[in-house]
Amino acid sequence: MPRPDSPQHHGIRYLNDRIVVWLLLAPMLSVIFGCNWIQRKQGYNQELCRDCIEQSFTAQQTGNLEQARQHLEKSIKIEPHHAETWWNLAELSIQQDRYSLAIVELKEYLELQPDDPHGYLRLAQLYYLQNEYELAQTALKETIRRIPNNIDAIMLSGRLARKQSDHPLAMSAYYHVLQVNPNHAEATLELAEMLLAKHESVQAAAILRGLTRTNLIPEDESRAHLNLGIAYGQTERWEDAVEHLAKADAMTDQPTQRDRYRLAYAHYKAGTSQQALEILLKMADSEHWDSRTENFYATITGTIPQATYTPSVMSASHEHRSDHPFLKDLQVSPVFATDRLLQKLSETEIDIVPPEWGPK
Question: Is residue 330 within 8 Å of residue 316, measured between CB atoms?
Answer without folding.
Answer: no
